[in-house]
Amino acid sequence: MTASAAFVSTKTFASRPESEEQSMVRKVAVSSFLGNFIEWFDYASYSYFATTIALVFFPTGNHTVAMLQTFGVFALSFILRPIGALFWGSYGDKKGRKAALAHSILFMSGASFLIGCLPSYAQIGVGAPILLLVLRMIQGFSASGEYAGAATFLGEYAPTNRRGIYCSLIPASTSIGLLAGSFLATMMSTHLTQSAMVGWGWRIPFLMAGPLGLVVLYIRSKLADSPVYQSMSEALDTKQSAVEGGFFAPLKELFSKHFKALAISFGACMLNAVGFYAVLTYLPTYLSDTVGMDVAQSGTITTVCLVSYVFMVFFMGHISDKFGRKKVLIGACVAFIALTVPAFLILNTASFVPVLIVELAMCLTLTANDGTLSSYLTETFPTSVRFTGFAFSFNLANAIFGGTSAFVATGLIALTGSSIAPAWYMVVVAAIALVAMILSHENADKDLQHI
């Protein structure tokens, strides 16, 4: 891309009426928020309703086996996420961010809606869990482009000195999706009987994904691709580039020219994957099933933590704009290494106030990573492979470490007999992530066109 081409494109975008530019940024923000909200509301619902789903699809006489089967389906749904990341990433880098995000939301919300329509094991036998697994894998394939694509899209619109707080909207929308799932689960567990929950209650959050997906699709149909992406496209011979290299040309470029950055990004994403799923989706199950805490109390704690988490994420995005992504991400690694084991020891007291304080502290530690990671990954790769690099590193880490976190934690407790075994697992992952971040580079002050 030539400097003159970049200048012309940027000037064209800047010369639009201010109200038009603000309207476009607002639409990008709203569509990014809602897309991630749907994805994580679905994942939260699956985790928070895990005990009920186990009864509907895996009615064995052994509760631990049923829970492991339920979390096993959760983990297996992540297998297609790296493959989906390569597909949607290449699509977004080759054909545009807008097109990739518009199509991925259809598959993602559609699969979630169909989960809410599934018959139970009692109705069709083994076909029920098989259909559940298939739909979870379709959802995982489609969702793999959502987080990375939305963060890339929004980051490319954001001003350089405020990219951190702009991109923090993505994890904030994620936590709000989890908050909505937690709130719904708490209200339903309080007001519905067990038979109602098993019969129809668990279906409600999944059915909601259908109409929400159509709303996001409509908003995204009104968007234009980011000025950074348009600048790159205008600098290329579009007729020729559409033929050269094929659909997966961004993938080839990523592995041949940016493998080191990809490996470091994967390391940074490992801690986010384990920490996010362990702290925000597994702990409610851990507190009720392992510690023996009242379900309503653990749900209330989760709700309070998720509300606080939203504000913490924005705060950490702002801090990363002031001090850089690398320092904040290293701080998160050190905090997880030092605090996780003591935190789990306190969780095992099952006392409301101490557990609330500890979960809030763990949320603050996690937001140092989560509120910074989306801007860090956006700044790590050049425009031609930004979507692919972000999506693949993020989703590969989530497939290996995120989707399996609840399964591994439950299995470690059963294997070792120690209720704090998951804490040591998090410490090891945090140590690996720390090494990756020490090897990383700081790009917070750079224009994305110059990376």
TrEMBL record:
Its main location: membrane. The chain crosses the membrane at residues 40-60, 66-88, 100-124, 166-188, 200-219, 261-283, 295-316, 328-346, 352-369, 390-415, 421-439. GO terms for molecular function: symporter activity. It comes from the Bacteria. Keywords: Cell membrane, Membrane, Symport, Transmembrane, Transmembrane helix, Transport. It is found in: Cell membrane. The keyword Transmembrane applies. SUPFAM superfamilies: MFS general substrate transporter (SSF103473). InterPro entries: H+-coupled_symporters, MFS, MFS_dom, MFS_trans_sf. The keyword Signal does not apply. Residues 28-448 form the Major facilitator superfamily (MFS) profile domain. PROSITE patterns: MFS. GO terms for cellular component: plasma membrane. It is a multi-pass membrane protein. This is Putative proline/betaine transporter.
